[in-house]
Design goal:
The complex is a heterodimer. Chain A is 68% helix and 0% strand. By secondary structure, chain A is mostly helical. By secondary structure, chain B is an all-alpha fold. Classes of the chains: A mainly alpha, B mainly alpha.
């Protein structure tokens, strides 16, 4: 025990962790040099193709959302004249779209928080401990994340109708856990595995229990991974449609995705293309900002499950 | 100093007592997740199986009164698919299969091509990665509206193609819009997963192949594909299972109860929302078994390794697989 000296166990392990974190976490893949000038041109053409393929359809949505109703069918690549008309129409009180966004935030937010709280200890156990039925549990979690949601919607719809839960938040949050919990556990497990085992071993040598090692050493270090998992889980819950559609029939409890799908224009008998586009942009922009800021981490989180 | 830590330090395999302690600790950590999954998945699935043996509440044939209780019909809901009511089911089954096969095939080809291009990226890696995440982050409902707008009769798709197709009127045109929209949203995702697999292949392997005079195509077929196969298999499996439960996209893009695009998931939801829980549950169970069969075929026949557990007997590592390649390369030479 003399090795430890006056330093507290956690402080010491954290110091080691900091030293570890200094080294690059993953060797960036070396870019490959292309041979001739022709292949370089081909390559840039390919890059341009990917970017246009991914972004152009969404760009068209943004452009259309800034057109006036009278020139909504215009084909010009920039909105001229520029108009906020559709955005005003979206927040017309008759649409209760603001309420729908609030509902989405409540449902997706609660689902994410609950899934993370429940899933985090499980992922640690799956990443670090040896126990019986571990493989079975892993298989169950991956199987449930690939599960057809309609299969659980039918009996739950009947059950919730019986107990008066239609048009409540819990009727959407509980079934949403069926996909967000496995997703959270799976993503977190891959992040926990990336942390060096030596950290907990060092902490336990210094006198921490396993629980203390988890709470004081691993959890703070895993914070970026936890945060990434929050984003991935939140996007999944935010995009959910089937459950929200089945469990609500009142506009007061519809989430944004359901509200958009049922959008009717401010003016009767006019197909509300413009305000549909504007609503689509509003629902998507927060996600896109998150994704742009944390793209590197999100890609790591998505890819971690597939390769190893 | 705890015994577990001691074992960790001395490098000895943990003894029985330590493993028991680990197991108990694991049980505590794991139980909340297991409980919730039992509640929100296992119970509803069992309830669905039970529900599928009941018919719809309605006119009681014996008494002539309208009854609130659902009659027990046994396997009636399942055998009904071979009768008159079966036409709608088989149509949905065929649509689901058609969408899954065609979109996943296209997504795989486009996704692999994207990954190969991205893997070459000297500059612009960030912008490509950012743009590739755009379709992934957009809610399916929003992307359905987006493509509905593009494929509007007076929309930009007809203008660019110089056609006057009524895309939403049903038939193959509607199916094509679903496939285009689905491929757009998910091909980048496959590209992302395959790229992660590609980046594990060391450059030296390609250099060695180049020295041996292997053409670009030969390098792709003999090195890239076999080495990226595990990542690709998992990506394709995930996408197939996801496509089999397709609901949002056809529901919003074309609409509910449209023969040309109705999938099994849409059929189930429609039956349930019309209070025919029994039939809905039976279709849901069939869809569940279908998904299960596809997953089983992938894991069993093609060897997709989905469950990754470090304690399990090791699979062939990348290095071993490389060695295998090396051997086959040598055997080609005189």
């Amino acid at each position: 025990m003399t090795l430890v000296g006056r330093e507290s166990p956690t402080a010491r392990t954290q110091r080691i962790a900091a030293a570890e974190a200094g080294a690059p976490a993953h060797a960036a893949a070396m870019p490959r040099r292309s041979g001739s000038r022709g292949s370089t041109a081909m390559f840039y053409l390919g890059i341009a193709f990917i970017v246009v393929y991914c972004v152009a359809p969404y760009y068209w949505m943004v452009v259309s959302s800034f057109r006036r109703t009278s020139d909504i069918f215009s084909l010009s690549p920039i909105p001229r004249p520029f108009s906020m008309e559709n955005y005003v129409a979206v927040f017309d009180p008759g649409q209760s779209f603001g309420r729908a966004i609030l509902n989405s935030i409540i449902v997706a937010g609660t689902t994410t928080v609950v899934a993370l709280l429940i899933g985090i200890t499980t992922s640690y156990a799956l990443a670090r401990l040896r126990f019986r039925f571990k493989r079975a549990l892993l298989a169950m979690i991956i199987a449930t994340s690939m599960f057809p949601q309609v299969a659980i919607v039918v009996p739950l719809l009947k059950l919730f109708t019986g107990i008066g839960w239609i048009n409540t938040y819990q009727a959407m949050i509980l079934p949403s856990l069926s996909f967000s919990l496995p997703l959270a556990v799976w993503t977190l497990t891959t992040f926990f595995r990336q942390l060096p085992v030596e950290l907990e071993q060092a902490a336990m040598v210094d006198g921490c229990t396993r629980w203390q090692a988890f709470r004081r050493i691993i959890l703070p270090l895993a914070a970026p991974g936890v945060f990434t998992t929050v984003i991935i889980t939140f996007i999944g819950a935010w995009n959910e449609f089937l459950i929200a559609l089945s469990m609500t029939n009142s506009p007061d409890y519809q989430t944004a995705t359901v509200a958009i799908s049922k959008f009717s224009g401010a003016a009767a008998f006019v197909a509300p293309f413009g305000s549909q586009m504007a609503a689509g942009v509003i629902v998507t922009i927060p996600l896109l900002i998150l994704v742009m800021i944390f793209q590197r981490r999100i890609v790591a989180g998505l890819a971690a499950g597939a390769v190893k | 100093m705890s015994t577990t830590a001691e074992a960790a330090v001395t490098g000895k395999r943990p003894g029985v007592a330590e493993r028991l302690a680990d197991s108990r600790f694991a049980a505590i950590l794991v139980s909340p997740t297991v409980l919730v999954l039992l509640l929100v998945i296992v119970y509803p699935v069992l309830a669905a199986v039970v529900q599928s043996t009941y018919g719809a509440a309605g006119l009681d044939e014996k008494t002539g009164f309208v009854s609130d209780t659902e009659p027990l019909v046994g396997l009636g809901n399942y055998t009904a698919i071979f009768g008159d009511a079966g036409a709608r089911f088989w149509n949905a089954f065929a649509n689901t299969t058609f969408f899954t096969v065609v979109s996943v095939a296209l997504e795989t080809v486009i996704g692999v091509a994207m990954a190969l291009i991205m893997n070459q990226a000297l500059r612009g890696r960030g912008i490509v990665r950012a743009s590739i995440l755009v379709p992934w982050a957009i809610p399916t409902v929003v992307s359905a509206l987006l493509w509905q707008w593009i494929f509007n009769a007076n929309g930009v798709a007809n203008a660019m193609l110089g056609t006057n197709i009524l895309w939403s009127a049903g038939g193959f045109a509607s199916q094509a819009t679903i496939i285009v929209a689905d491929v757009w949203k998910t091909a980048p995702f496959i590209g992302l997963l395959v790229l992660a697999g590609l980046q594990l292949i060391p450059e030296e392997v390609y250099e060695a192949a180049r020295m041996d005079g292997a053409s670009a195509w030969r390098r792709f077929v003999s090195i890239t594909l076999p080495l990226v196969k595990p990542a690709l298999l998992v990506a394709v499996l995930f996408r197939m299972l996801d496509a089999l439960r397709m609901f949002d996209l056809p529901y919003v893009l074309i609409g509910p109860r449209k023969e040309s695009v109705e999938t099994l998931a849409m059929l189930v939801q429609d039956e349930a929302s019309n209070v025919r829980y029994g039939a809905a549950a039976a279709y849901a169970v069939i869809l569940f078994l279908y998904v299960f069969a596809v997953a089983f075929a992938f894991v069993g026949l093609l060897g997709a390794n989905v469950v990754d557990d470090e304690d399990a007997p090791p699979r062939r590592s990348l290095r071993e697989r490389l060695r295998g390649l090396d051997r086959s390369r040598r055997s080609v030479q005189p």
